[in-house]
C-alpha cells in the first residue's frame, strides 16, 4: 500500500509537471482493495484491471521501473511505450491490462477463467477489478452471467469509490448495495469495507477457495474512496472537499499501520524504515524511467499482428527519422 | 496458376460451402486440442444455418459450446481466452449482431496486442454470416465486412468458393491474429471441388484467379464470384473476362489484382457491401495507385446501393447486387 501511495504521489507530481502525456487516474485512497485482493491470489492467477490500474499493477507484483518507463512512454516500458497509463499490462505476470473501456475487464477475466476451466487447471483463478460505474454496463452483466452459468473460476471485485466519474453511485444504480446484483446470477454477493485491507483479503480468499473448488464465481463489492478526482485535472465540482477530508480519517494505510502498532506487530521505527525504502524504490524507478530510451518512430509499425501484412510494412519502410509519418500513399 | 489448375493437382471431393466449412472446423478440432467453438446454438442445434452440424456429437459440449445470447459477453470472453492460451472459434450468428459486440472487437480483440507492445497473442477466429437474398430483412441480411477490413488490428476473409472456404477457415484458426471469416449465407449450398488434404490451407492475402481472360477484370467476392463467373461464361466469345476472387480482404493481394488490370485495362469491382467507403473503394484505389496508366476505362462498382436490405422480394431483388449488375457494368466499359 505504501509503495502504491508513494508511486501515485509521484505520478501526480510528474503529470502536473507535464512529464506524463495523456490522462492519468490515480488510485490514492483505494490501496487496500488492490493489495488486499492480490495478497489473496497466487502469482499464477490472472487479473484484469481498469483505467485506474496503477495500484493493481504494483499489487500484482509488476516492476515499478518498467511501469514508470511505460508512464513516460519509453521503449523499455511494459508496452514498449504503446500503452501508457491506461493500458499497462504484463501477460507473463498474469496482468491482462489496465483498460480504457469502463466494464471491459470482467469479459476478459471470464475468458481467462474459461481457459483455466477448459484446460483443467484447477488451482488458478481469474479476478476482475472494475468500478461502481462499470456495474451499469451491459457487458459486465453478460460476463458475470456467463461465468456463473459455466461455473468458471472467476472473481468479480467492484471497487466502489462512490463516484462513476463525476456522478455519485446512488444516481447511477437502483440497488442499495452493488453486490445485490449477484442475486440475479445466483452467486454469492458480499459487500466489505474496502478501506480495510484485512476485510478485502478475507473476502477474496474465500472467493478464491470457492473458485478453485469448482463452485463458481463470487461477486464482491469493496466500499472505498478515491481522494483525487476521476482524472488528474478534474475540478471535482460534484463533491465537497470536506467529504474527502472526512474519508481521509479512515485512510487504509493509517488505519492498518495503527492496528499493527497496537497489536505490537510493527513499531513506528519499522514503519519509517519501510517508508524510506519505498521512497527510494520509487525514486529509483522514476530515475530509471527518465533515463530510458524513447521508442524510435518506426516502432509505431510493430506489434500490430503476429504476421505483419504488407499494408503496414510499406508504411514502416517510409517512416521518417524525425517522427513525421510516411503514410501518404501506397 | 488459376485456382482451378491448383485444385487439379490435388485429390479433391465435391462439397458444398457449408460442408467445406464444417470439415475445416472438424479437422482443426481434431488437430489441436486448444481449439473449441462457441456461439449461439452452434452445439445441440448444429447452428441456425446448420454449419456446425454434427460437430457437437463428435466433440461434446466442452469443445462445441452453446452460449447465452450475449455477443458482448462471449466475444469478451473469447478475447480473454485467446490472450491466455486457448484458440476459440466464435460464431456470430448474423453479421448484423456484430453491432452488439463491437466494443469487444474494436477496443479489446483488435487493440490488445498493440497496446501491450506485442506481448500477447490473439488467436481468435470469428465466423459470421452475411448477405441478403432470403427475405430476412435489414437486421439479418447485412454485409459488414468492410468495417472489419477497415479496422486496424483485425484480419478479414470472405470466401467465394467451397475450396477457399475450407482453406481460409483453417488458416484463420491456425493464425495467432484475430481473423474474421465472412460467410455469405446464400452460397452455403453452392458446390465445388475441395481438397481432402488436411494440410490444404489458403494463405491470407492471396487472391485466386478463378477464370482467366483478356478484356475486363472483375474483382468479385463471396456470392458475386459465382455470379461473375456466370456472366463471364455468357459473354465468352464477345468479351473475355478475368474473374479474381481476393478471398482475403485484409490483407489484400494487390499484386494479383494489379497484374490482371495491367493485362485487361478494365476493372469491375463486385462486392455485396454498400458501395460507399468500402471494399470497392479500396480495390479501386490500389489499382489507381499501381496501375493508373494501364486503365482504359473508368472503374465500375457493383454493390448494394447504400440501402439496408429490405424485406419484400421485389425490393430486395432491386438492391441486391447480382449477375445482371455485373453484366451491365461490363457492358458500360467493354
Polypeptide structure, described:
The complex is a heterodimer of chains A (330) and B (334). Chain A has 330 residues and is α/β, with parallel strands linked by helices. Chain A folds into 2 domains: 280 residues, Thiamin diphosphate (ThDP)-binding fold, Pyr/PP domains (Rossmann fold), CATH 3.40.50; 35 residues, no CATH class. Chain A is 40% helix and 9% strand. In chain A, the strands form 2 sheets. In chain A, strands 1-2-3-7-6 form a 5-stranded parallel β-sheet, with helices on both faces. In chain A, strands 4-5 form a two-stranded antiparallel ribbon. In chain A, helix 1 crosses helix 10. Chain A is globular and about 55 Å long. The model of chain A has no long low-confidence stretch (mean pLDDT 95). With 334 residues, chain B is an alpha/beta fold. Chain B has 2 domains: 193 residues, Thiamin diphosphate (ThDP)-binding fold, Pyr/PP domains (Rossmann fold), CATH 3.40.50.970; 126 residues, Rossmann fold, CATH 3.40.50.920. In chain B, strands 3-2-4-5-7-6-12 form a 7-stranded mixed β-sheet, with helices on both faces. In chain B, strands 9-11-10-13-14 form a 5-stranded mixed β-sheet, sandwiched between helices. In chain B, strands 1-8 form a two-stranded antiparallel sheet. The longest helix of chain B has 15 residues.
Oligomer: heterodimer
**What is the total tally of β strands of chain B?**
14
- What topology, given as strand order, has the largest sheet of chain B? 3-2-4-5-7-6-12
CATH fold category name of the largest domain in chain A: Rossmann fold
What's the CATH topology label of the largest domain in chain B?
Rossmann fold
Mean pLDDT of chain A: 95
The CATH H-level superfamily of the largest domain in chain B is Thiamin diphosphate (ThDP)-binding fold, Pyr/PP domains
Helix content of chain B: 25-40%
Low-confidence stretches of chain B: none
Amino acid at each position: 500500500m505504501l509503495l502504491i501511495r508513494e508511486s501515485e504521489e509521484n505520478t501526480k507530481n510528474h503529470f502536473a509537471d507535464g512529464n506524463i502525456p495523456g490522462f492519468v487516474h490515480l488510485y490514492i485512497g483505494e490501496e487496500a482493495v488492490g493489495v488486499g485482493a492480490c495478497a489473496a491470489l497466487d502469482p499464477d492467477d490472472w487479473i484484469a484491471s481498469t483505467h485506474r490500474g496503477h495500484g493493481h499493477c504494483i499489487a500484482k507484483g509488476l516492476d515499478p521501473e518498467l511501469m514508470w518507463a511505460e508512464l513516460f512512454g519509453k521503449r523499455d516500458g511494459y508496452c514498449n511505450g504503446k500503452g501508457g497509463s491506461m493500458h499497462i499490462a504484463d501477460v507473463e505476470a498474469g496482468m491482462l491490462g489496465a483498460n480504457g473501456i469502463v466494464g471491459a475487464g470482467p469479459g476478459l477475466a471470464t475468458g481467462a477463467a474459461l481457459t483455466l476451466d477448459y484446460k483443467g487447471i484447477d488451482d488458478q483463478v481469474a479476478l476482475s477489478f472494475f468500478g461502481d460505474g462499470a456495474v451499469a454496463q451491459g457487458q459486465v452483466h453478460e460476463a458475470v452471467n456467463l461465468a456463473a452459468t459455466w461455473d468458471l473460476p472467476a472473481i468479480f471485485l467492484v471497487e466502489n469509490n462512490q463516484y462513476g466519474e463525476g456522478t455519485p453511485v446512488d444516481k447511477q444504480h437502483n440497488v442499495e448495495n452493488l453486490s445485490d446484483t449477484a442475486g440475479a446470477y445466483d452467486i454469492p454477493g458480499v459487500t466489505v469495507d474496502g478501506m480495510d485491507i484485512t476485510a478485502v483479503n478475507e473476502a477474496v480468499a474465500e472467493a478464491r477457495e470457492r473458485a478453485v473448488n469448482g463452485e463458481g464465481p463470487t461477486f464482491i463489492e469493496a466500499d472505498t474512496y478515491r481522494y483525487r478526482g476521476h482524472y488528474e485535472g478534474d475540478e471535482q465540482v460534484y463533491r465537497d472537499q470536506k467529504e474527502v477530508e472526512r474519508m481521509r480519517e479512515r485512510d487504509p494505510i493509517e488505519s492498518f499501520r495503527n492496528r499493527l502498532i497496537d497489536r505490537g506487530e510493527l513499531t513506528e521505527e519499522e514503519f519509517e524504515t519501510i517508508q524510506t525504502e519505498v521512497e527510494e524504490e520509487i525514486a529509483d524507478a522514476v530515475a530509471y524511467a527518465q533515463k530510458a530510451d524513447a521508442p524510435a518512430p518506426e516502432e509505431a509499425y510493430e506489434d500490430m499482428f503476429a504476421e505483419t501484412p504488407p499494408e503496414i510494412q510499406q508504411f514502416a519502410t517510409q517512416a521518417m527519422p524525425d517522427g513525421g509519418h510516411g503514410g501518404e500513399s501506397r | 496458376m488459376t485456382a482451378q489448375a491448383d485444385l487439379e493437382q490435388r485429390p479433391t471431393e465435391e462439397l458444398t460451402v457449408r460442408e467445406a466449412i464444417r470439415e475445416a472446423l472438424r479437422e482443426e478440432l481434431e488437430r489441436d486440442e486448444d481449439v473449441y467453438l462457441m456461439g449461439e446454438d452452434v452445439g445441440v442445434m448444429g447452428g441456425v444455418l446448420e454449419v456446425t452440424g454434427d460437430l457437437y456429437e463428435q466433440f461434446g459440449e466442452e469443445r462445441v459450446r452453446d452460449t447465452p445470447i450475449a455477443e458482448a459477453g462471449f466475444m469478451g470472453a473469447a478475447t480473454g481466452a485467446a490472450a491466455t492460451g486457448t484458440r476459440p472459434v466464435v460464431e456470430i450468428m448474423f453479421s448484423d449482431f456484430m453491432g452488439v459486440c463491437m466494443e469487444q472487437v474494436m477496443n479489446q480483440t483488435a487493440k490488445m496486442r498493440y497496446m501491450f507492445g506485442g506481448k500477447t497473442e490473439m488467436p481468435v477466429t470469428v465466423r459470421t454470416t452475411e448477405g441478403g437474398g432470403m427475405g430476412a430483412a435489414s437486421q439479418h441480411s447485412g454485409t459488414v465486412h468492410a468495417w472489419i477490413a477497415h479496422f486496424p488490428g483485425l484480419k478479414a476473409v470472405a470466401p467465394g468458393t467451397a475450396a477457399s472456404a475450407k482453406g481460409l477457415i483453417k488458416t484463420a484458426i491456425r493464425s495467432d491474429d484475430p481473423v474474421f471469416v465472412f460467410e455469405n449465407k446464400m452460397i452455403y449450398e453452392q458446390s465445388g471441388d475441395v481438397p481432402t488434404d488436411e494440410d490444404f490451407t489458403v494463405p491470407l492475402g492471396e487472391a485466386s484467379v478463378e477464370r482467366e481472360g483478356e478484356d475486363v477484370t472483375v474483382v468479385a467476392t463471396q456470392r458475386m464470384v459465382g455470379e461473375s463467373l456466370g456472366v463471364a461464361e455468357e459473354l465468352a466469345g464477345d468479351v473475355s473476362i478475368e474473374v479474381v476472387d481476393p478471398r482475403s480482404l485484409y490483407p489484400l493481394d494487390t499484386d494479383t489484382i494489379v497484374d490482371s488490370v495491367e493485362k485487361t485495362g478494365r476493372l469491375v469491382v463486385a462486392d455485396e457491401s454498400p458501395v460507399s467507403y468500402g471494399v470497392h473503394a479500396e480495390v479501386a484505389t490500389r489499382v489507381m495507385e499501381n496501375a493508373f496508366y494501364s486503365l482504359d476505362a473508368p472503374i465500375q462498382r457493383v454493390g448494394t446501393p447504400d440501402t439496408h436490405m429490405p424485406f419484400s422480394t421485389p425490393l430486395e431483388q432491386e438492391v441486391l447486387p447480382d449477375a445482371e449488375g455485373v453484366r451491365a457494368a461490363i457492358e458500360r466499359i467493354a
